[in-house]
Amino acid sequence: MKQNESQIRNMKALRLEERVFPRAMITPTMLVLLIMTAYPLIFTLIYSFTDYNYLKGMENAKFTLFQNYSSLIKNGYFRQAVVNTVKFTILAVAFEMFFGLLVALFVHGMHWGKKVMRTLLLLPYLLPTVTVALSWRMMLSVNYGIVNQFLTSLGIPVFNWFMDTRTAFGTILVIDVWQNVPFVFLLVYAALQSVPEELYEAARIDGAGALQQFHYVTLPHLKTSLALCALMRSIDTFRLFEKVNILTGGGPAGTTSTITQFLYTYGISNLKFGFGSAGAVVMTILVLLISSVYIRRAMQ
Predict the structure, then answer these.
(1) Tell me: the pLDDT tens digits for 223-264?
(2) Which end of the chain is more exposed for a tag (fewer CB within 10 A), N or C?
(3) How far is it, in rounded angstroms, from Cα 75 to Cα 53?
């Protein structure tokens, strides 16, 4: 009897240890992440209700309640920046998903040279964003850019790609799509490896063509990966800053201005951290709204 009780106590202690040990191992990491995320978020929210200016110091800051948010809503440049950001995000993610899926299907169907092709396709994504922006600025330069020289040789008028209201937005969109299509390709290509070949064989036996195989076999297995990819790209694209700041500075006439560019120009660079924090809160809310749509779709 005593032996049975001892075994029961040992089993309970072992189960308790199995529950406690993983939590004890995760706790330090969770504390670090909590400090690195919760702390900035809380203080950003607090700053957004003040007129905090870095030069004056926090001790001289006054609570202004919703004045910063009211100023943002009334600011025409901010409203234009929101529209530009949303439009850019929708177009960029749509093109990146489309071309990324096409490239993944193409490489997946190759019989030789896959490794070389995968390496070459990933190069644009591996480059730093600043390097990409500077490289494209040189290629599209009005004076010495290779693109305009090629157009001139064909007798086509030269464009000032980054300072023309007709081309600035589209040019940055093309550059962003060019750089980030490899990211979509990588995730989708990895998901394609998990699709059982037996399903394709069964579909071919049933007389299904290439489009039918894609619709009934490939696409159902890619839905979760595509939703995750779209979510990650939407969040990242919504924070677009480096390309705009380097190539156009938000111009011409605000056609390429984004939320982050606006906050940098009118908030951070002027050391108006209260105003900038209010914009950051608004941007966070917009990102959460977009993310919730993708998450709901993925869970359906």
Answers:
(1) 888 888 888 899 899 989 999 999 998 888 889 999 999 888
(2) N
(3) 19
pTM confidence score? 0.83
pLDDT over 80 (residue 190) = yes
pLDDT (0 to 100) of residue 34: 82
Whether 135 maps to a domain, the answer reads yes
* Domain-located, residue 198: yes
Domain that holds residue 287: 69-299
- Cα atoms in the Cβ-side hemisphere of radius 13 Å centred on 143: 0
Contacts of residues 25-33 at CB distance under 8 Å and 24 or more positions apart, as own/partner, are none
Same domain, 42 and 96: no
Count CB neighbours of 291 within 10 A.
15
Range name among 194-208, 223-237, 258-272 with the lowest pLDDT average: 194-208
Q: Residues 39, 125: one domain? A: no
Number of domains in the chain: 2
Considering the domain architecture, whether residues 154 and 27 belong to the same structural domain is answered as no
Rounded CA-CA distance 24/22 in Å is: 5
**Cis peptide before 182, with omega less than 30 degrees from 0?**
no
CA distance 159 to 214: 41
Count how many residues are written for the chain: 300
